[in-house]
Amino acid sequence: MFTRFSYHFFRAIWHVRAVILALITLVVTGAVAVTLVEKMPFGATLYFAFVTGLTIGYGDIVVKTPFGRLVAILIGFVGILMTGLIVAVLVYAVRESIPGSKDTG
């Protein structure tokens, strides 16, 4: 059953790969924007962007400017979209991997 799940999961991920890459690109772009505005090293802002995007929010790195805060909010929204997409793919893979769970319409 796990191999059926893996097959359906990775097949679905393959179909939405462009969206996933676009969302990751937006997070990295947000990190670049925060680097330029907040005058922080790129490594620190990349870490900040992914922690924010994954909605973990440790608080060890914070932005101080209004524009930096706006970018952080946008990164958070992108993270919510990415989380929703991954959950949808997982639900699809579970549904497809359980025999008899498909709609017969």
How does this model look, in words?
The chain is mainly α and 105 residues long. It has a single domain (2-97), classed as Helix Hairpins (Orthogonal Bundle), CATH 1.10.287. The chain is 76% helix and 0% strand. It has four helices and no strands. Helix 3 crosses helix 4.
Topology:
Blueprint: H1 2-15, H2 17-38, H3 42-53, H4 66-97
Helix pairs in contact: 1-4, 2-3, 2-4, 3-4
Shape: elongated
How many helix segments? Answer: 4
CATH uppermost class? Mainly Alpha
What is the residue-mean pLDDT, rounded to a whole number?
A: 93
Computed Rg: 18 Å
User: How helical, in percent, are the residues?
Assistant: over 70%
Q: Which strand-content bin applies to the residues?
A: under 5%
Structural class: mainly alpha
Largest sheet: none
Instruction: Detail the poorly predicted runs.
Output: none
List keywords for this structure.
105 residues; mainly alpha; Helix Hairpins
Brief overview:
By secondary structure, the chain is mostly helical. It is built from four helices and no strands.
